[in-house]
């Protein structure tokens, strides 16, 4: 008995749509199922509504995984340049913001339209508002119990994403299916997520809500030199989002507030040349005024520099160059851009994303244990893993 479809893909997000178009162009009869009322909701909200759709400088070093070599093959075979060519073929206007980060000039809708058009041209069908209550392995492939009835397919691709932003339709569905078929899951946690602070520091920083300054933040041998943003809940901005993917509860962050300066030497020379100058004055020259004032007040630095001993200046330099912060936690999946962990990639083919011990079952995108840095890398993984599976499923 032949199957209803050659390929069923669960999840009409970035990875699922890319996979659907790729498989469809190979002549496969493809169905994409999603329980949401719209496809690609995360694409639409990404990059502040303008979708940072890839990063021209993406390398495997931009990804976190318990099995770091796994992502290399797929990323090599479908590159940022490949996706850029697709986007340009569809006439989408784009711009490079920070180095290598490509955004739509107009709207993230443009990227979703590229994918939906590709799916249409490739003959892939998309069924929304359809939930899947069960998946069963059968002789010819898989049988799905869905809210639209029973469906069979030869190949099943799980592209249901991670746990971040449950209000956008995120569920643990992919992990449940992985468990059902005996796969190991690595613990999941929120990544690219703002930090929350303990009450005392939160109160001290509250007046700075909205202030951003370039810092270098480090934790667990990783560091990022990018802006930090103080929010009414805690700390955010690119540097904090990046380091959050490496942070574990209880870890301390070390923040260099003046990464471009040699703080101790600056202060020594200021004391020598302008003895009446103050730490507050020095800070005001290098940090946003509100931040400088609040940080100065937090430490009670008063009086002219001539009154500071060498050891005092060393302490000031340390407080500025190595501000130790122990976050209370993170905002969690509610606001996280990604989910770390997931399906252990040691059980998947790095060329095809297929489960090694189970024929014709594939896991792609965020559901697997590959997570990119901020800056377009996560979509690049979605495209590359989607194409890898779409070429064989
Ligand atoms: P998703 O895009 O999450 O798609 C999964 C799909 O599966 C969804 O449509 C969901 O409805 C569906 N689904 C889930 N459970 C079920 C179920 N039980 N049954 C049926 N369907 C189901 N990355 C970048 O590279 N650049 C950015 O600019 C960027 N900005 C972001 C901004 C925000 C606010 C967020 C939250 C993320 C951002 N990301 C960005 C990360 C990026 O969106 C994800 O890495 C990417 O969407 C993952 O693609 P995916 O296809 O694996 O999963």
Describe this structure in words.
With 393 residues, this protein is of the alpha+beta class. The protein has two domains: 236 residues, FAD/NAD(P)-binding domain, CATH 3.50.50; 136 residues, Translation factors (Elongation Factor Tu (Ef-tu), domain 3, Beta Barrel). Helices cover 32% and strands 25% of the residues. It contains 13 helices and 21 strands. Strands 1, 2, 7, 8, 9, 10 and 20 form a seven-stranded mixed sheet that branches. Strands 17-16-13-14-15-12-18 form a seven-stranded antiparallel sheet. It has a three-stranded antiparallel sheet with strand order 3-6-5. α1 runs parallel beside α13. The radius of gyration is 24 Å and the shape is elongated. The model has no long low-confidence stretch (mean pLDDT 97). It binds flavin-adenine dinucleotide (FAD). Flavin-adenine dinucleotide binds next to α1, α2 and α13. Its cofactor is FAD. Keywords: FAD, Flavoprotein, Oxidoreductase. GO terms for molecular function: oxidoreductase activity. InterPro entries: BaiN-like, BaiN-like_dom_sf, FAD/NAD-bd_sf, RsdA/BaiN/AoA(So)-like_dom, RsdA/BaiN/AoA(So)_Rossmann.
